[in-house]
Amino acid sequence: MIISAIELREIRLPLIHFFETSFGRTTERRIILARVIDKDGAEGWGECTAGEGPFYCEEWTETAWTTLKEFLAPMVVGQQVENAEGVNGLIRKVRGNRMAKAAIETACWDLEAKRAGLPLWKHLGGVHTEIACGVSIGIQESPELLLEKIARELAAGYQRIKIKIKPGWDIDIVRKVRAQFPEIRLTCDANSAYTLADAPLFKALDEFNLMMIEQPLAHDDMFDHAELQKQIKTPICLDESVRSAAEAGHAIDIAACRIVNVKLGRVGGHAEAKRVETVCREHSIPVWCGGMLESGIGRAHNIAMATLAGFTLPGDVSASSRYWQEDIIEPPVTVRSRGTITVSNKPGIGFEVNRSRVDSLTMRCELITS
After folding, report:
1. Vertex 49, ends 277 and 15: CA angle to 5°?
2. Which of 59, 178, 238, 360 has the fewest beta carbons closer than 10 A?
C-alpha cells in the first residue's frame, strides 16, 4: 500500500448541549479529520480525538494539527507499507502524540478494508454484529436536570448510564440518582479529579452498587489506584492511565483495576487497541469503548473496534443525534430501542462521508503530497 497524499481538515462542530466534566465545559468541538489517498485514488478517513485544550492529555487540537502537518503526514506520504498496521513503523520515532497518530492510522485501516471489500469490523477481527450502548452524561446545572436527562436516556433504551463526578458533585448526586433509579447499571467517571486522600469518599460510594468508578485518581498513576482498589469493593476502571497494551499488562499485574476503558486516540489507533483488548481478555478483564465527543467518522471507528471479543460491557458509543444537529456521515449513527447498534456490512467504516457538510464546517485544510 502506497499513500500518495494525506488531506488534513479542521472542522468546527457545535454540540446540541454543552458537555461538562471536571476539566470544564465544551460547547463546540474542533475536530481534525485525516483523509488518506493511495496511488489508485482510493481513500480512507480517520479522526483525531484530541480536545480543544490540553486537559484530558497533553495533546490538543492545535498541537495535533502541527504534529500531523509537519511530521506525521510527511513521514507516511510516498512510503510503501505492507498493511495499515505497518504505518506505525513509519511514525514510531515521533514520541507520544497518540491521538495525532491514530488519525492517520485509523484512516489507513478504513482504506485497507475498502480495498479488501470488507467492513472494517470484520477486517479488525470483530465478532459482535451488534454492540451494547451506554451513555455518558456530563455535569448538569442541577441534580433535577441530571435526573431528567437520565430518564430520557433510559427511555431511549440505553443499557448503562455513566455520570461525571468531581469534588462537590459526587456522593450526594449519586445518592439522588440511586434513589430515583435503584436498579439501573450506573457508573461514575471522575476524570482524575481526586487523590488517594479521598479514599473515604470512594468507600462510601460502595453502598450504591456501581458497575465501576472510572479513573478516580491521577491520569498517569497506577500505584495509588492499586492501593485504592484494595480498600474498596467497587471495581476501578482505568482510562487515562492505560495508553498501551504494555501499560494494560502492568495495571493488571498490580491489580490497579478490574475493568479497562479503551479509546482509539488514547492508545494510538486500531493496532494497539487490538493488543490492549487481547491482553485484557486473556486476563479476564472486561473492556469497553470510551468516547471523546467524536464526529461520525470517529464514532464509526469506535463501532468497529467495539465488535472485538473482549468488549463485553456497554460502551459510550451512542447516537449521532445526542450530540449533533447534523452529523458528517450518512446515515447518522442510530441506536435501536433495546440500546444496541447493529454494525454495517458495507466496506470500510460502513458510512459515507458527507463531503458538502464537511466542506461547510472546514476552518482550514492542508494537502500533504510527496
Report:
1. 125
2. 360
Whole-Å CA distances, 175 to 171, 205, 206, 211: 6, 9, 11, 15
Q: Which of 101, 114, 162, 164 is catalytic?
A: 164
Q: What is the pLDDT of residue 263?
A: 98
Identify whether residues 108 and 18 lie together within a single domain.
Answer: yes
Q: Select which of 101, 114, 162, 263 is catalytic.
A: 263
Q: Is the pTM of this model over 0.85?
A: yes
pLDDT digits (tens, 9 = 90+) for 31-81: 999 999 999 999 999 999 999 999 999 999 999 999 999 999 999 999 998
Q: How far apart are CA 165 and CA 187, in angstroms?
A: 10
Kindly report, residue by residue over 323-350, the tens digit of the pLDDT: 999 999 999 999 999 999 999 999 999 9
3-state DSSP assignment of residue 94: coil
Angle (CA) 273-275-278 rounded to 5° is 110
Domain of residue 87: give its range.
3-117+354-369
Q: Is 149 a catalytic residue?
A: no
CA distances 142 to 145, 149, 176, 177, Å, are 5, 11, 11, 12
Bridge partners for 43 per DSSP: 37
Q: Is 346 a catalytic residue?
A: no
For Cα atoms 58, 30, 59, give the angle at the middle one, nearest 5 degrees.
10
User: ∠ at Cα 316 (311, 322), nearest 5°?
Assistant: 150
How far is residue 156's CA from residue 303's CA, in Å, rounded to a whole number? 19
For residue 348, tell me if it sits in a domain.
no
Cell of 19: 458537555
Pull the grid cell for residue 68: 500531523
Does 104 map to a domain? Answer: yes
CATH code at position 103: 3.30.390.10
What CA–CA distances, in Å, run from 200 to 194, 217, 243?
11, 13, 28
The verdict on 169 and 82 lying in the same domain is no
Rg over CA atoms, the chain:
20
